[in-house]
Design a protein that fits this description.
This protein has 744 residues and is of the alpha/beta class. A 6-stranded mixed beta sheet has the order 6-8-9-10-7-11, with helices on both faces. The protein has a 5-stranded mixed beta sheet with strand order 1-2-3-4-5. The chain has a 3-stranded antiparallel beta sheet with strand order 12-14-13.
C-alpha cells in the first residue's frame, strides 16, 4: 500500500497492476440527497481526478472510488456500467463522460472497464472506529488471540497510516539529510526516500498489529496483587469493610466490631444461587445491606462450595487485564461491589462474563443499586449500547433486598437488641430503613462535620439548628422560618455577617443531599416549608460527652438561647409538640417556656381535657425518654395526668398485639419504651408509687399482652420484669380470695 495525496492511496498487489483509490466522505449536511449524484461527482471532480491519474500512470493501473455514501439518482447507472452487465447503461455513461472529459466514447469505455466501486459503502465518520475495531478483532481471532486489545491495535494501525500520509519538514523529521554527488542524484534519492516513506507493506501492518497486541499484554501482566489494583486472597484474609465495601457501622463506645448479622429473608435464595455457581447479582436500594448480605452469604457457603480465593478487582479494565495475564480463576469468587462502576468501554462486558464463567467452580458475586440498574438498562454507556448491557446481566441470578426489615427479619434483629446499635436502628430507623440507618449514620455525621470545617458552613449551621430544635423537644419537622432565624448563632460573627440569601438557599440544598445514596442530614417536607433532621444526628449530638466530664451526657444545657427564644415566641399551645418542649425547657438553662405553662395552668388558661390528646401525650413522653428523664416525675412536676398517659400507651400496644403481621410504628415503639422505663426504674417493685397506683387498676390479661409484645420485640429483660410483676400480683390477689365456707 502506498499513501498518495491525489488518490489517497495506492494498493500494490503481489500480482497484477496497482490500483489508485480515491476515498471521499459525504455527510448528510451536504444537501437534501447525501448520495453521490452526477452533479456532486462533477463538483468534487471525483471521476475526473481518477481519469487523469490513470492517464498519468500511462494506463498501467486500475482505479477505484470508495465512499460512505452510495450512488444516487441517474448516477446509479455508473454501478451497472462499470460491471458491464447493462449495455444501455454503459453506452449512456460513456457518452456522458466523453462530453465531460472531452475524450472519445471508446476511451470512456476503457476507463469504465478499469473503474471499480466497493460492493458496500464505507462507514460514516462516527462509525469508522467501531467498524475498524471489529475487523481487527476478527483478524486477531483468526490468529488465535483474544480481542481484548483490538482497539489499541486499531489505533496503532491508524497512527502508522497517518505518519505515512503526512509530510513533515526536515527539521521535524528523524532522518539524516539526503546527500549525493550531484544535484540530480540528490533529487533522485529524495524522491525515492519520499516514496519509500509512503509505502506500507501488508507484512509490516500484520507485524504492527501483533506487536501492539503483545505490548499491551505485557503491560497487563504486572497487574497482580503486587500493584494493589486487584486483591486475590482467601475469604478469611479479607476485611469486609476495607476490602469488600461493607459500610462502616455506627460508632458506639465499647462496640467497635461489625454489628451481628441480621438474617434476611433473601438469604435462602442467595445460598441456593451461590452453591449453584455462575453469576449472582444482589439488587436493592442504597445502603440496604447488599454488601453485608453478600459477604455473609460467602461465609456461610465457602466450605461447601470449595472456593479457594476471592478476587476483588479495582475496575473493569483491571479485571480484563487480569484475564489476559492467564490468571487461574478456578475455584474463585469474583467480587464486584457496585457493578455499575465496572461496566463500560474497556471494562466489563458479556464477553468478560462468558470467559469468567468458563472456569471451573467460579462464581461472580455482584451488587447493584436499584437506581443504578435502571440507569444502566435505560441508557447506553461508552463502548456499550443498551443491548450489550442487557447481555451482561441476562444470565444472572437476581436476589432482591428490601429497604426495610420484614416481620421475620425484625424478629431476628430483636434477638440481637443487646447491641445498642441494632436496638437504635430498630427503634429509630423509621423511613430510613434498618441497614440504611446503621450505614448512613456515620456518613451523615462526617458530612455535618465537614460542613462545619468549611465545606458548607451555612448548611452545617442549618443542620445544627434543626438538631437542637429536636433536642429542645420539637419532635416534628421544623419550620424553615425557624431555622433561618436561628442558624446564624452557629456561625462565627465574621461569617454570618457576610451570609446572603443565596448562601442560605445553597445551604438547604447541601444539607438535603443524600449521603451514601441513603439518608440526608435534612429531609425537606411540606413542599420545603419544613425540614426533618436525621435521627442519627440527634442521637450523636445527645451522646457527646462534656469536656472534662466523663460520666454525664450532654443533655440540653448547650442549646443556644436563640432556639429557646424562637420556641417561646413561635410555638402555640395547640401545637402537638408544645408539652414536649415544655418538659425539656424545665431542665434547661431557659425554663421560661415551662414557667409560662405553669402560670397558664394556675390561671386556668389551659382548657379542660388538654392532656387527653394522645398525640400531645405521646410527644411529651418521647421527649422525656430522649433526655432520660423520669416520666412519672415529669408528670408530677408539670401536672400531667399520668393515668391518661399510661392507659393511652397501653391501648396503642394492645392494638399492635392484635396485629401480629405488622411492624411497630414510632408511637408504638415509644409506648414500649415508656413501660420499659417504668419496669427498669423499680416502679413496679414499690407498693405505693404513681405508676403502681395506675398499673394495679389494669386487667392482668392486658398486662400479659404487654409482656408478649415486649418479648416479641426483643426487650426480653423488660418483659421478664413485667411477667414477675404479673405473677406476684396474681398470687397476691389469689391469697385475698375468701376461703370456701367463709363467704359472708
Amino acid at each position: 500500500m502506498l499513501i498518495e495525496h491525489s488518490t489517497d492511496l495506492i494498493l500494490i498487489p503481489c500480482e497484477g497492476p496497482p490500483e489508485l483509490v480515491s476515498i471521499k466522505h459525504r455527510e448528510p449536511h451536504h444537501g437534501v440527497d447525501s448520495g453521490w449524484t452526477w452533479s456532486a461527482l462533477k463538483k468534487d471532480a471525483v471521476l475526473k481526478d481518477l481519469y487523469e491519474a490513470w492517464v498519468a500512470s500511462e494506463r498501467q493501473v486500475t482505479v477505484a472510488f470508495a465512499s460512505n455514501a452510495g450512488l444516487s439518482g441517474p448516477a446509479k447507472a455508473l454501478w451497472a456500467a462499470h460491471r458491464g452487465v447493462d449495455a444501455a447503461a454503459l453506452q449512456k455513461v460513456a457518452s456522458r463522460l466523453s462530453k465531460e472529459f472531452k475524450i472519445s466514447e471508446n476511451e470512456a469505455r476503457v476507463f469504465l472497464s478499469i473503474l471499480h466501486f466497493p460492493k458496500s459503502p464505507l462507514p460514516r465518520r462516527n462509525e469508522i472506529t467501531d467498524v475498524g475495531v471489529r475487523k481487527v478483532e476478527a483478524y486477531l481471532a483468526a490468529l488465535g488471540k483474544r480481542a481484548w486489545f483490538a482497539e489499541s491495535c486499531y489505533r496503532a494501525l491508524v497512527a502508522r497510516i497517518c505518519a505515512a500520509s503526512t509530510d513533515l519538514p526536515d527539521s521535524r523529521g528523524s532522518r539524516s539529510p539526503i546527500s549525493g554527488a550531484t544535484v540530480r542524484e540528490r533529487v533522485a534519492k529524495e524522491e525515492q526516500y519520499r516514496l519509500e516513506g509512503r509505502y506500507i507493506s501488508a507484512e509490516e501492518l500484520r507485524y504492527l498489529l501483533v506487536s501492539e497486541y503483545e505490548r499491551m499484554q505485557a503491560e497487563a501482566a504486572p497487574l497482580t496483587t503486587r500493584t494493589g489494583t486487584v486483591l486475590i486472597r482467601p475469604l478469611g484474609d479479607l476485611d469486609p469493610v476495607i476490602d469488600l465495601g461493607v459500610h462502616v457501622p455506627m460508632r458506639v463506645e465499647g462496640w467497635t466490631e461489625l454489628p451481628a448479622y441480621v438474617a434476611r429473608t433473601a438469604d435462602l435464595d442467595l445460598d441456593q444461587a451461590l452453591t449453584a455457581g455462575g453469576f449472582v447479582l444482589i439488587e436493592g436500594n442504597s445502603a440496604a445491606g447488599k454488601s453485608r448480605t453478600g459477604y455473609e452469604g460467602l461465609l456461610r457457603n465457602v466450605k461447601d462450595a470449595g472456593w479457594k480465593t476471592v478476587a476483588v478487582p479495582s475496575s473493569g479494565a483491571v479485571l480484563r487485564d487480569l484475564i489476559l495475564t492467564g490468571h487461574d480463576f478456578n475455584n474463585t469468587v469474583v467480587w464486584l461491589d457496585d457493578i455499575e462502576q465496572y461496566v463500560g468501554h474497556g471494562g466489563l462486558d458479556s464477553g468478560i462474563v462468558r470467559t469468567l464463567l468458563s472456569y471451573s467452580n467460579l462464581t461472580i458475586l455482584a451488587t447493584v443499586r436499584s437506581r443504578a440498574m435502571a440507569e444502566l438498562l435505560g441508557a447506553s454507556r461508552e463502548g456499550l449500547n443498551n443491548s450489550g448491557i442487557r447481555k451482561i446481566f441476562s444470565g444472572a441470578a437476581k436476589i432482591s433486598l428490601g429497604r426495610s426489615l420484614g416481620v421475620e427479619e425484625r424478629a431476628h434483629a430483636a434477638d440481637l437488641r443487646e447491641d445498642p446499635r441494632i436496638a437504635a436502628a430498630l427503634d429509630k430507623a423509621g423511613e430510613a430503613g434498618f441497614a440504611e440507618y446503621l450505614a448512613a449514620g456515620p456518613a451523615a455525621v462526617e458530612r455535618w462535620r465537614n460542613g462545619k470545617h468549611g465545606e458548607n458552613e451555612v448548611g452545617a449551621a442549618l443542620v445544627s439548628a434543626a438538631v437542637d430544635f429536636r433536642r429542645a423537644g420539637y419532635m416534628a419537622p421544623v419550620p424553615k422560618t425557624w431555622l433561618t432565624a436561628t442558624y446564624r448563632h452557629y456561625l462565627e460573627t465574621r461569617t454570618h455577617r457576610r451570609t446572603s440569601d443565596a448562601a442560605i438557599y445553597e445551604g438547604f440544598i447541601w444539607a438535603s443531599v443524600m449521603v451514601e445514596g441513603a439518608s440526608s442530614c435534612l429531609e425537606p417536607v411540606a413542599d420545603g416549608e419544613r425540614y426533618e433532621v436525621f435521627d442519627y444526628l440527634v442521637d450523636y449530638a445527645q451522646s457527646q460527652r462534656r469536656d472534662g466530664d466523663m460520666e454525664a451526657l450532654v443533655k440540653v444545657d448547650d442549646i443556644p438561647d436563640a432556639v429557646w427564644h424562637e420556641l417561646a415566641d413561635r410555638i402555640s399551645l395547640d401545637d402537638p409538640q408544645f408539652m414536649s418542649c415544655v418538659s425539656i425547657s424545665a431542665e434547661s438553662r431557659h425554663p421560661g417556656l415551662a414557667y409560662a405553662f405553669k402560670n397558664s395552668m394556675r390561671s386556668g388558661q389551659i382548657p379542660t381535657g388538654y392532656f387527653a390528646d394522645p398525640e400531645r401525650l405521646f410527644n411529651f413522653a418521647r421527649s422525656c425518654i430522649a433526655i432520660n428523664f423520669c416520666i412519672a416525675c415529669k408528670c408530677a412536676s408539670l401536672g400531667v395526668d399520668l393515668g391518661i398517659l399510661i392507659r393511652n400507651s397501653l391501648e396503642s400496644i394492645l392494638a399492635f398485639h392484635d396485629s401480629p403481621g405488622e411492624i411497630p410504628d414510632l408511637r408504638q415503639i415509644t409506648c414500649l419504651e415508656i413501660f420499659e422505663q417504668f419496669a427498669n426504674e423499680g416502679e413496679l417493685e414499690a407498693s405505693d408509687t404513681m405508676v403502681r397506683n395506675v398499673v394495679d387498676e389494669i386487667p392482668l390479661n392486658s398486662l400479659r399482652k404487654l409482656a408478649t409484645v415486649l418479648q416479641r420485640e426483643g426487650r426480653v429483660d423488660t418483659a421478664q420484669l413485667w411477667i414477675n410483676f404479673i405473677d406476684t400480683r396474681q398470687l397476691t390477689e389469689g391469697l385475698q380470695l375468701p376461703l370456701p365456707g367463709m363467704e359472708k
